[in-house]
Write a structure and sequence with these properties.
Chain lengths: ~110, ~110
């Protein structure tokens, strides 16, 4: 989608290496989210941020880190502590305030282990 | 972690037939129920957000109903078309900024 850009589309990680997935949005929305999808499972929340310089752990935050220094950017770092990083990662924003607002997703990054 | 259950896991439907599938969620602390369509090689797209018991939403041939007291929502597709082939996700919100997603129903329309 033109409003949310995830990069790269494919990423490979070596053992013991940290890698960073990019998520940028030009829609001026406050809330941003990172999800992970594994085969046969639903989207699981890793981290989310509702305002700049603040973020919260989701259900599976171990082995991941994030930052929110700018409103338009919410990068996700997959650290070497994440022992099973192979998955499809989606970034999302909430279109407006409130939990009844739908989420709007990027095109995703597929991470694989070399 | 709250459970959101979707059934069936996958479904094959003949083109032109109608179909429906289910999303089950906790009936307490309900705030909103979301439905998304996720086509292959695309990103998930919001279909409906439902907040009130008895809510019914419609978008073209797709509609959804909501029963918050018993904790389920149905998604209906009338006159299935090949472009309806996708994974349909529901997600539950219980009053904060987080969504809990089900595992999805993968729908395949047979021409």
């Amino acid at each position: 989608d033109g409003g949310i850009t995830q990069s790269p589309k494919y990423l490979f990680r070596k053992e013991g290496q940290n890698v960073t997935l990019s998520c940028e949005q030009n829609l001026n929305h406050d809330a941003m989210y990172w999800y992970r999808q594994d085969p046969g499972q639903g989207l699981r929340l890793i981290y989310y941020s509702q305002i700049v310089n603040d973020f919260q752990k989701g259900d599976i935050a171990e082995g991941y880190s994030v930052s929110r220094e700018k409103k338009e950017s919410f990068p996700l770092t997959v650290t070497s502590a994440q022992k099973n990083p192979t998955a499809f990662y989606l970034c999302a924003i909430t279109m407006g305030q409130g939990a009844w607002q739908p989420q709007h997703f990027g095109d995703g990054t597929r991470l694989s282990i070399l | 972690i709250l459970n959101v259950e979707q059934s069936p896991q996958s479904l094959h439907v003949q083109e032109g037939d109608s179909t429906n599938f289910t999303c089950g969620f906790p009936s307490s602390n309900f705030y909103a129920l979301h439905w998304y369509r996720w086509e292959t090689a695309k990103s998930p797209e919001a279909l409906f957000v439902m907040t009130l018991n008895g809510d019914e939403k419609k978008k073209g041939r797709i509609s959804a109903t909501l029963n918050t007291k018993e904790g389920y929502s149905y998604l209906y597709i009338k006159g299935s078309q090949p472009e309806d082939s996708a994974t349909y996700l529901c997600a539950f919100n219980w009053g904060n900024e987080k969504l809990t997603f089900g595992t999805g129903t993968r729908l395949t329309i047979i021409p």
